Model the fold of this input.
Amino acid sequence: MRTYLERVFESQVWRSMFRHGLPESNRTRAETVFYNFFLHVHPTKVRRRSVKFTYTWGLGGLSVGLFIVLTVTGALLMLYYRPSIPQAYSDMKDLQFVVSSGQFLRNMHRWAAHAMVAVVFLHMLRVFYTGSYRPPKEFNWVIGVILLVVTILLSYTGYLLPWDQLSFWGISVGTNMVRAMPFGLGDQISFLLLGGNIVGEYALVRFYVLHCFIIPVVAMILMGIHFWRVRKDGGV
Done:
């Protein structure tokens, strides 16, 4: 068996995919990480305290897990949802009373969204109280703050989609707050978000696109940068 594995590891096919053997020094560890696409995000060394559970509490990993749950459940919900009036509200009722496990799917998406906001906020508190934002990690701290804002925006933009009273007045209050911005920016941004001066079908479509495409893409790009920087700094 050992001879067979050695022949596999020494074959040209294996060497074309993995250009280095098992790392035995700091130099070979660095080369392995640098030349392997799947290992490129990993650091050559990990600090001992970073792998201690009570140091991180796994909050960053939980945030990623919840984002994956939201992505999967959101994609399934899109199969039964139409961003138009009055279909949006009737589709929510169908999910609740007609579609098999529809209520469970919707609740799973909703509670995962609530949990993600809470977990990301706790993650930021952990980073702050452990001083993990200090130099030279200021850039990644800023990325984390932006991701917190993006998480809140993801939760908020999903507010309008059920098209019920809570959704309507929640968006009305939010866009009225935006209008209070100085220098005339508030009115322009509010008009851009609503597609007009009232909360109607144009607003529903725009919040749908924001919630299902634009903000998730921004979140994934920022998360990729955030994870890469965490790993290169020796974190988990």
Observations:
- The chain has a mean pLDDT of 88.
- The radius of gyration is 23 Å.
- The CA atoms of residues 1 and 201 lie 66 Å apart.
- The chain has one domain: 52-232.
